[in-house]
Design goal:
This protein is an alpha+beta fold. The protein folds into two domains: 56 residues; 119 residues, no CATH class. Helix content is 42%, strand content 18%. A four-stranded antiparallel β-sheet has the order 1-2-3-4.
Length: 189
């Protein structure tokens, strides 16, 4: 295809540039001024695109946060071992020891402690969690007095992330809460 010369040969240089990018040939024919102009233009387009995606993604995540149950709204995930069940074997015990901490969410932990302090009714805790969309799952395999409920929400929007949460609580023989733990994770991209 033949180039028509305009603006100091910009059309021909652009086509040569595109051909060279695929072959690894030298770009010595491109004038530095022209290359800088195109580079700046591409950078501006890239930055504007990323900013728009980020703003739309943030807006979506704010909308998603408001649809989470009250226990999980405006919370951070914690890092560490993601279970409050006692280890099932020696290998698991060593892994827990190596990680050194539980992956509890500080905000979820505080809310659970405030709402369901030791001595609280297990029935009330179960009622509140199920009303907020948590599903009861089987107790811990290694300690049947440790109960569990989990929550999952599929991510939506341009930058989606899934929300996973598990609440653990230990009960006594009268079904009163001894302690609670709240784990939260966000996964996406």
């Amino acid at each position: 295809m033949k180039c028509s010369k305009f603006h100091h040969g910009t059309c021909c240089r652009s086509r040569k540039l595109l051909r060279c990018l695929g072959t690894g040939k030298s770009l010595s024919f491109v004038r530095p001024r022209l290359m800088t102009h195109h580079f700046h233009s591409l950078c501006i387009v890239f930055i504007v695109t990323v900013a728009c995606l980020f703003l739309v993604g943030c807006n979506e995540s704010d909308q998603q946060t408001t649809t989470l149950p009250p226990l999980l709204q405006k919370t951070k995930a914690g890092g560490g071992w993601d279970s409050a069940c006692p280890p099932r074997n020696e290998k698991e015990r060593k892994m827990i020891e190596m990680v050194g901490r539980l992956a509890v969410s500080p905000e979820v932990e505080q809310r659970l402690r405030d709402e369901f302090p030791p001595g609280s009714s297990d029935d009330r805790l179960v009622a509140v969690l199920t009303a907020q969309g948590f599903k009861l799952i089987e107790p811990c395999e290694t300690d049947q007095t440790i109960q569990r409920a989990s929550f999952f929400q599929k991510g939506t929007g341009i930058i989606p992330y899934d929300v996973n949460a598990t609440v653990y609580w230990k009960i006594d023989n009268q079904r009163r809460v001894i302690w609670t733990k709240g784990f939260l994770s966000y996964s996406g991209l």
